[in-house]
Design brief:
CATH superfamily: Alpha/Beta hydrolase fold, catalytic domain
Oligomer: single chain
CATH class: Alpha Beta
Number of helices: 8
CATH topology: Rossmann fold
Shape: globular
Distance between the termini: 34 Å
Low-confidence stretches: 1-8
Structural class: alpha/beta
Mean pLDDT: 95
Number of strands: 11
Largest sheet: 9 strands, mixed
């Protein structure tokens, strides 16, 4: 399903409710999903400054607005805009919790929905919408690294936080354990050169060792042969993902946060440090 072309916003007047913490907006491309923003209070409606965009994807419990809030001070300090999508549970299948994590679910393509959200925001705000920074934790980490395989050319940086199940960069295993049939599933070719040009962070708590949610029994909804082979804990599995990247010459900054278990808000400062370095390098280059 092709996305319609959008024109970036230039000097568009913004209502009082368009600054700071915004409400949730239904995505026009697929109104089953929505998003909220954080916009710096001194965003210049009449200038020509392009504001970096940070996309933060929630985990299974879906605290999209709280993640947006967690990056609010960073957005003010770094003069960027934060977009936090909300991908509801129970879409199509009542009670289903994992839809967005694997990108494709029934008739839904969550990668295209996110890109449509970015385009919608670009109609109102002067964002650097062609390439944005992406972070996801837990379920959001699922989404983030799989989105990276499909759209590396749209990313200025990616931070992958503690996914429970990983898709290794392995062209001998089928999606979603590996990427052997990426073309057949998504009609998109893996672009390793583009991936190598994106700064990558992988981040996990040093005490993130519980396994009850991530060990998939044979016959389970998301079971595939090899699903549990990448390790026992989230630390193990993220390490396996890093190794699969490095085997393909994709550099990874791997951050283990001491004393932190599976707690996404507690790793936010580590993610912000990574994004600050990326933004500083971009400013240096330009």
């Amino acid at each position: 399903m092709a996305l319609p072309a959008r024109e970036p916003g230039h000097g568009k007047q913004i209502s009082h409710y368009g600054f700071g913490r915004t409400t949730l907006f239904a995505c026009r491309y697929d109104q089953r999903c929505s998003y909220c923003l954080y916009v710096p209070h001194d965003y210049d409606e009449d200038g020509d400054q392009q504001y970096p965009l940070i996309v933060v994807v929630h985990g299974t419990s879906r605290p999209a607005q709280q993640y947006r809030d967690a990056f609010a001070e960073f957005a003010e300090r770094e003069q960027c805009i934060v977009l936090a999508p909300l991908f509801p549970a129970g879409l199509i299948e009542p009670g289903e919790m994992s839809n967005y994590k694997f990108i494709k679910f029934h008739d839904m393509r969550f990668d295209l929905i996110l890109l449509a959200m970015v385009d919608e925001v670009a109609e109102t705000y002067r964002i650097e919408h062609k390439r944005f920074l992406l972070h996801g934790f837990s379920g959001g980490g699922h989404f983030a690294h799989r989105f990276f395989y499909l759209h590396p050319q749209r990313l200025a940086a990616i931070s992958i936080g503690a996914p429970g199940m990983v898709t290794l960069l392995d062209d001998t295993k089928p999606w979603w354990v590996g990427v052997a049939d990426l073309k057949n599933v998504f009609d998109i070719e893996l672009d390793l050169d583009a991936m190598r040009n994106v700064p990558v962070q992988m981040v996990v708590g040093g005490n993130d060792i519980e396994t009850w949610e991530i060990t998939i029994p044979e016959g389970g909804r998301w079971y595939m042969p090899g699903v549990n082979d990448s390790g026992v804990t989230r630390i193990d599995r993220l390490t396996a993902l890093r190794e699969s990247f490095e085997q393909r010459d994709i550099a990874v900054q791997f951050d283990t946060v001491p004393g932190v278990a599976h707690a996404g808000f507690e790793i936010v400062p580590t993610v912000e440090s990574f994004f600050s370095a990326v933004l500083a390098e971009q400013q240096r280059i330009h």
